[in-house]
Amino acid sequence: MGSRPRRLLGHCLLPPALFLLCLLCSAVSARTSHGGAPKRQRNVTRWKGKAIDVGGCDLFQGSWIYDDAYPLYDSSSCPFVEPEFDCQKYGRPDKLYLKYRWKPTACDLPKFKGEDLLERLRGKKMMFVGDSISLNQWESLACMLHAAVPGAKTTLDRKDPRSSLWFEDYNASVMFYRTPYLVDIVQDKIGRVLKLDSIQSGSSWLGVDLLIFNSWHWWTHRGSIQPWDYMQEGTNVYKDMDRLVAFYKGLSTWARWVDSNINSSTTRVFFQGISPTHYSGRDWGDPSARNCNGQTQPLGGSTYPGGSPPEDAVVRKVLAGMARPAYLLDVILLSQLRKDAHPSAYSGDHSGVDCSHWCVAGLPDAWNELLYAALVL
Ligand SMILES: *[C@@H]1O[C@H](CO)[C@@H](O)[C@H](O)[C@H]1NC(C)=O
Ligand SMILES: *[C@@H]1O[C@H](CO)[C@@H](O)[C@H](O)[C@H]1NC(C)=O
Ligand SMILES: *[C@@H]1O[C@H](CO)[C@@H](O)[C@H](O)[C@H]1NC(C)=O
């Protein structure tokens, strides 16, 4: 993901703008009605994939607090972190960004226990599906598990699109499947076609016990890094369309795929919320900052001046419309507060300043702590 995803509101002409307004309204109302949900959501042993409440605690509302016990591991002793995310190895001079713990306002997160997670995964498979933000979270989890059981025998099979890390003693597989749009890109006579209503690679996700999906950043790509020439839905072919509308259509295809192919009594499905970028200091109330470069501390408090981007409303709208909604790993706000957590100039893979991905160790560890919390609480 070499590009710099941009804010999209500026691209919206009238019909997409109306479409968006409608999305925003329905997402807000979905949230509000959820907030008033009755106590049945307390029983997460029979969790159906929707609840955020754990005894009344929203895990994703909170703030970052300094904790000397962090980071959870030393990236230099993790064999699974790639240059792209290995900020310390590639010269990042500061370490304060490693020292923060996510603290939900109304409760404490359970301590991450890697051995316990592997035990829960015994004889099972879990898979992160999506773009390089999924890769980011997969590598973080690999490091967290390795730190918990450093002597465990592992086999890493790193391939495109499917990579797998197998923990032999647990017969547990922790996998990553790269498909940035979730829906298909096919080679056709007219060129490369992004098929908004087709999801052939879904067959590779069947039989996995725990799925964590993600998509967004590639929907904004244009020019030489746009990997398709046309979009297609049914028999209609488009040279381009409003990217939020396209995202809504593609994500809806994914949602229908989950509803008709996943047995919710045997498989848990998560959707990793939008991972924000930090390319304008104005978003966090510091107009003098050009981007995330040089940022060494998170924002305090529990609100983000830049507010919530429209793609977040698309995600909420699509999940709310599912027959069995995927659990939203709602990381957007807590990640927005982490303007300090990107590789910036210290990526071993991207030139320039990367304010899209995240250092490992770092923020994705918190995403995995939250994933673990959602599994055990
Ligand atoms: C939660 O649901 C399970 C299965 O339906 C039931 O056995 C258990 O007693 C419930 N726990 C609580 C605290 O209601
Ligand atoms: C290991 O786990 C897979 C499922 O991930 C299962 O099909 C296989 O039978 C297991 N092997 C053993 C030896 O338990
Ligand atoms: C889902 O899985 C359960 C447990 O294996 C099984 O009893 C049920 O028939 C499955 N449902 C469908 C629709 O396949």
From TrEMBL:
It comes from the Eukaryota. InterPro entries: TBL (IPR029962), TBL_C (IPR026057), TBL_N (IPR025846). Residues 1-30 form the signal peptide. Residues 56-108 form the Trichome birefringence-like N-terminal domain. Keywords: Golgi apparatus, Membrane, Signal, Signal-anchor, Transmembrane, Transmembrane helix. It is a single-pass type II membrane protein. One of its GO terms (molecular function) is xylan O-acetyltransferase activity. Residues 109-373 form the Trichome birefringence-like C-terminal domain. It is found in: Golgi apparatus membrane. One of its GO terms (cellular component) is Golgi membrane. Belongs to the PC-esterase family. TBL subfamily. This is Trichome birefringence-like N-terminal domain-containing protein. It comes from Colocasia esculenta.
